[in-house]
Write a structure and sequence with these properties.
alpha/beta; Rossmann fold; 5-stranded parallel β-sheet; 9 helices; 7 strands; about 45% helix; globular
Length: about 220
């Protein structure tokens, strides 16, 4: 039923896009949600992240920040789809290494979950939109999107409201739970998120996935 609802909403978004074409989130050129010129000039992530977490763009870049904001708060899932494709293209070398480690077995891609209240308000999980596009960008079936492996069992203060790293880590502790734990045993997992700051969210998910038997867990984020 969730898949049906997703495709219905996607169809509505496509119709709106045809009737009212997007303008680039960076330069406002019509007909492109993020134009090639703006994409090429986005600031790459340079600040260090936590071990096994990689990010594509620098969140301090005004266009990157605006793109994430539009995706999360202004109902633009097609922008998330574009970001997912860009994330896949940028992580090719790392993906090849992960493939070698997985020894030909499918790599599980797990989006960071959001609360039911947020999903109902927003209409979608932005990390899932990014993850779905990331998976679909692969030329062969090396990925399996798994949006039912980890769920958010507690409503927490949004991480963006906390500037102190220790408070962020404490805020997210115990927030997630693994469902269908048997399915994760021995698997290689990529966690996908829109933004990582301290890495607290991904580190918490890595911890519970490894505790459930995942063989290797890494995190990819659009921005840091």
């Amino acid at each position: 039923m969730e898949k049906v609802n997703y495709f219905i909403k996607s169809g509505k978004n496509l119709l709106l896009e045809i009737l009212f074409p997007s303008s680039c989130v960076g330069c406002s050129i019509r007909g492109q949600i993020l134009c090639t010129n703006c994409e090429q000039n986005l600031r790459q992530a340079e600040r260090p992240t936590e071990s096994n977490i990689l990010a594509l763009y620098d969140y301090r870049d005004p266009i990157v920040k605006k793109a994430i904001w539009e995706l999360k708060y202004h109902k633009t899932p097609y922008l998330g789809a574009r970001l997912g494709a860009l994330l896949y293209d940028a992580m090719q070398e790392d993906i090849m290494g992960i493939q070698i480690f997985s020894q030909g077995l499918p790599i599980y891609v797990v989006p960071v979950p959001i609360s039911k209240d947020k999903k109902n308000t927003r209409g979608y999980n932005q990390s899932e939109i990014i993850a779905r596009s990331f998976c679909n960008s692969a030329e062969n079936n090396i990925f399996e999107l798994k949006n039912n492996i980890v769920s958010k069992k507690l409503n927490t203060i949004p991480q963006a409201r906390l500037t102190n790293r220790s408070k962020r880590l404490q805020n997210i502790k115990g927030t997630f739970e693994v469902k269908n734990g048997e399915e994760i045993k021995g698997k290689t997992v990529i966690i996908i998120d829109d933004v990582t700051t301290t890495g607290g969210t991904m580190l918490e998910m890595m911890k519970i996935l490894k505790k459930s038997g995942a063989k290797k867990v890494v995190g990819f984020a659009v921005a840091h």
